[in-house]
Known about the structure:
Elements: E1 3-7, E2 10-12, E3 19-25, E4 34-39, E5 45-51, E6 58-60, E7 68-73, E8 78-83, E9 92-99, E10 108-111, E11 115-119
Parallel strand pairs: 2-11
Antiparallel strand pairs: 1-3, 3-8, 4-5, 4-9, 5-6, 7-8, 9-10, 9-11
Amino acid sequence: EVQLVESGGGLVQPGGSPRLSCTTSGFTFSNYAMSWVRQAPGEGLEWVSAINPGGGTTTYVDSVKGRFTMSRDNAKNTLYLQMNSLQPDDTAVYYCAKHYGESWTNALNAWGQGTLVTVSS
């Protein structure tokens, strides 16, 4: 059974720098592209970032470029999202998600339960 479990969310002050983690099991993590997706209160899902199976290539939505860094540790089957310079607009539930296959252009086929990040003073 594929499992994705996010952690690291919570209340963060504007300008804060939390790191989210996503521990995975039930599949060969190193074979799959992965993404982070978020959902702000009352809004739809927004894709945030993606990473290739080897971890050498990433891509981001424009609103987080230069502030967020996605990475992975294939030995630990874990995905990360380092978030810097957080703003209130970054408040959302953050989900990690697995793509079909190696490419992040493929659809997502597994999701974690999400972790809430609230940016507020």
